[in-house]
Amino acid sequence: AQSVTQPDIHITVSEGASLELRCNYSYGATPYLFWYVQSPGQGLQLLLKYFSGDTLVQGIKGFEAEFKRSQSSFNLRKPSVHWSDAAEYFCAVVDSYSGAGSYQLTFGKGTKLSVIP
Amino acid sequence: DAMVIQNPRYQVTQFGKPVTLSCSQTLNHNVMYWYQQKSSQAPKLLFHYYDKDFNNEADTPDNFQSRRPNTSFCFLDIRSPGLGDAAMYLCATSRGGTSGRTDTQYFGPGTRLTVL
Hints:
The structure holds two protein chains of two kinds. Chain A is mostly beta strands. Chain A is 0% helix and 51% strand. In chain A, a hairpin with an 8-residue loop joins strand 10 and strand 11. Chain B is built from no helices and eleven strands. In chain B, the strands form two sheets. In chain B, strands 2, 4, 5, 6, 9, 10 and 11 form a seven-stranded mixed beta sheet that branches. Classes of the chains: A mainly beta, B mainly beta. Chains A and B meet through strand 6 and strand 11 of A and strand 5, strand 9 and strand 10 of B.
C-alpha cells in the first residue's frame, strides 16, 4: 500500500505571506497525486492534480504544486495567502487501482492552515 | 451545475438506531465511493460501487452496508450505530472506465453524523 506524509499538522501564516505545504509520498512507479482543500464542516474540493508531464501544476484559487520525483514530494504553494484560504489541506495518492476504472485514494493526515489578518 | 449531493447534511441518531445516509450525483459517473472521516483525521474508504458491482474494503465493519439502486443514487446504511461511528461521511464519484488512474474523484459536502 502507498502512503502519504504531511509533516505539518498545523501552520499559521499572516495574510499576504507566501505559503508552502509539504507532502511526501511512497510509491514505486509514477504516482498520481492530488491536493484537496476542506473548509470547516464541508466536503473536499479538488485544488489540483498531477498525472504526468509538466512537474509544476497550476490549480484553482492561485495554488500551484511541484512534483519532485527525486524527493518524493508534491508540495503545495501559494505566493500570497488570503484569509479565505484558512482550511484543512489534504494530499492524496492513487492507490489500489482496480483495473476496471475504480481506485482507492490514500490521504495524508492533513495540514490545518490558519491565517492571521 | 453537475454535482454530488448528500442528504441530510447533519444527522443525529441514537445508539443502536439504524440510520441511512443518501448521496446523489448528476455527473453520470460509474463509480461512487463512501468515506468515513473522524475528527482531525484523513478520510478512510469504506466501500465503493463500480456501476452495480460492490467493493468492500477489508476492514470495513459489517455494521456498514450500502445500496446503489441506480446510477444516480447511493445509500450508506449503518445498522446499529455506536458512539465510535460518529463522524463525517463523504460521498465521492469518479468517471471510471478507460479514464483509469487519471480519473478524478469529486466529493459531496458530507453528512455529519452524531450518535447520542
